Alpha/beta hydrolase (Marixanthomonas ophiurae), 293 residues
Amino acid sequence: MKKSFLTIIVFTMSLLLAACSDESKPTFENEQPLGEETQLNVSYGDNPKQKYDLYLPEGRSSEKTKIIILIHGGGWVDGDKEDMSEYIPILKEKHPNHAIVNINYVLAAPPSTPAFPNQFLDLGKVINKLTQESEELELLPEFGLIGASAGAHIALQYDYVYDTDDKVKMICDIVGPTDFTDPFYTENPNFQVLLNALVDESAYPENSNIAELISPALQTTENSSPTILFYGDEDPLVPLNNGETLQTKLSNDMVSNSFTVYEGGHGNWSQASNTDLQLQLSSFINEHLPILE
């Protein structure tokens, strides 16, 4: 009887050990590369404007798939992520292994809803959400920012001031305002009224020079991310010397940068100029936000 009981125990233990051993072995037969996926109007906050579109590439993985974020312009009070939609097929073609995120942010509605620092913080919320969900989404939380006009200002300011964890690796600045202490702005009779309307002064130290604090060109450091700049030589909204000031500051801080000036105004350039922009930007992404196999 004792022998039979002992035999049963030994047999049972053998089965359990075999099962554990089998479970510990990796199985690959059923693993398939992840397919391309699009998630539209993903919420990252309670405001209806706090949404983004997410384009996930085929074969993505948390070990290599980095993220490009598009940020629209509109003078901080207008615009929509749809304004950046033309970049999506271009980026998909040239960078098929990157994830793409096209964001909205809460637009300013003075005096009740200021732009700054809220819009910088909205971008941070997007980056934090994608970082927190990176394992689930199979993404590597390293980011490149592409902003146009006000969107470029938001991208630059976020990286130079708020990106303390160095999640952003590169920025593309297309006609972004960079220095609000420039006479082009300060000599406008309505400048102070506009500044007061756009800024939540309670979010900044008392008696601060707000125009300076929200000027990316005056906030660069040696830790700023590599930046590629594109400006027009006849821009009625953002003076060319805003681009020149930023380029000089980045160079003085030994930050990798590229600066191109096209004939024309606020992004309304020739087809040849736009093609050149795309080629330069693609090379910059490959250099500073590469997908490593």
